[in-house]
Write a structure and sequence with these properties.
Strand content: 25-35%
Strand order of the largest sheet: 1-2-7-8-4-5-6-3
Order of helices and strands: EEHEHEEEHEEEHEHEEEHEEHHEE
Largest sheet: 8 strands, mixed
Structural class: alpha+beta
Number of strands: 17
Helix content: 10-25%
Radius of gyration: 22 Å
Shape: globular
Oligomer: single chain
Distance between the termini: 27 Å
Length: 335
């Protein structure tokens, strides 16, 4: 039941089980949501008792304090829920948004449902994600169907190839979650992914609305240089790429090769991508970012800041220009 190597954690021996990335509601409310896809293998089976699910667990934190907690299940969130004493746990361990909790099983196994919990502190909220050419995964243009349902329909083949951890369809849950950082303001999006008939759909309603995306806009995915979580990836968009003719694409590529006006080393505007090209947000843009941070909605975390495109280089790629960070950004992480 607990495959994997034995590691030393918190001065003890343990087997890593799963991790939970903390969103605003996990820190600000008196309960922790553990996505079903993370802990399904390590908690008792849900079977037909989702509404009455109840489990007593014990947690040893990094200060060697022992916590007795109760786990229930919320079908609407497809998540296990830790409620009692959670607010005290947050205060005692000084948990913050985007911190990661790693759950381990003790070795030797002392008793069922006793876990070691390791805290990995969040990275600087102003770090800009690096979109590296070699970390590109795949891209898809938004279609009429995507815009109508505000979901990006992705083939089963692409999902299994690039996001193999996604386990739906399953008898126990309808959707799972993936986490994406964008390059406009380094916000973190918790986006649901579900399976329907013959394809997966990524529920992009908030992302589409925030950036006013339309048919023909291109969505691209990358692996992060420094992932926050095992299901963390990067997402960017480019306006109108899918509507260009072949001659326009060739013209764009030629301009990129020549370092024409508005592109070159990333100093100009060029194509309208999902980034702040000049690095100077307007007052309305700043207000929008601040509002996103204050709301701490289910779709996003509290990471703010603006992307400065200086030090970037334009690459010829796919359907047109793709701007990717070439500078190495300093990052910090504490255990």
């Amino acid at each position: 039941m607990f495959p994997g190597p034995v590691n030393q954690v918190l001065g003890k021996m343990g087997i890593f089980l799963f991790e939970v990335l903390l969103f605003p509601r996990d820190v600000e409310q008196d309960r922790l949501l553990i996505p079903v896809e993370a802990a399904l293998e390590y908690f008792p089976p849900l079977a037909n008792r989702q509404e009455t699910y109840k489990l007593k667990i014990e947690i040893t934190d990094h200060q060697n304090s022992l916590w007795h907690m109760t786990v229930t299940y919320d079908p609407s969130e497809c998540s296990f829920v830790v409620e009692n004493k959670w607010k005290r746990f947050v205060a005692w361990n000084r948990l913050e948004i985007l911190d990661v909790l790693r759950f381990y099983k003790t070795v030797p196994i002392s008793y069922d449902f006793h876990y070691l919990v390791e805290l990995v502190k969040r990275r600087s909220p102003l770090i800009i994600p690096e979109f590296k050419f070699e970390n590109f995964m795949f891209q898809l243009p938004l279609t009429d169907r995507d815009i109508r349902f505000q979901r990006l329909f992705i083939t089963t083949e692409d999902v299994r190839k690039h996001w193999p951890k996604v386990g739906v369809p399953a008898d126990t849950h309808y959707f799972e979650r993936l986490y994406f950082s964008d390059d406009l303001n380094a916000a973190l999006w918790g986006i649901k992914i579900a399976y329907e008939i013959d394809s997966y759909n990524l529920m992009l309603a908030d992302f589409v609305t925030k950036y006013n995306l339309e048919k023909g806009d291109m969505i691209r995915f990358y692996r992060p240089v420094h992932p926050l979580h095992s299901r963390h990836f990067l997402i960017e968009y480019e306006k109108g790429v899918g509507n260009r003719t072949q001659s326009e694409i060739v013209a764009t590529d030629d301009t990129m090769d020549r370092g024409g006006e508005g592109q070159g080393d990333g100093g100009g505007r060029g194509t309208d991508r999902g980034s702040n090209r000049d690095g100077n947000p307007t007052q309305s843009e700043t207000a929008t970012t601040d509002d996103t941070m204050d709301r701490g909605s289910d779709g996003q975390g509290d990471v703010g800041g603006r992307t400065d495109s200086r030090g970037r280089k334009w690459w010829k790629f796919g359907f047109g220009g793709c701007c990717m960070a070439m500078k190495s950004n300093a990052r910090t992480e504490e255990s």
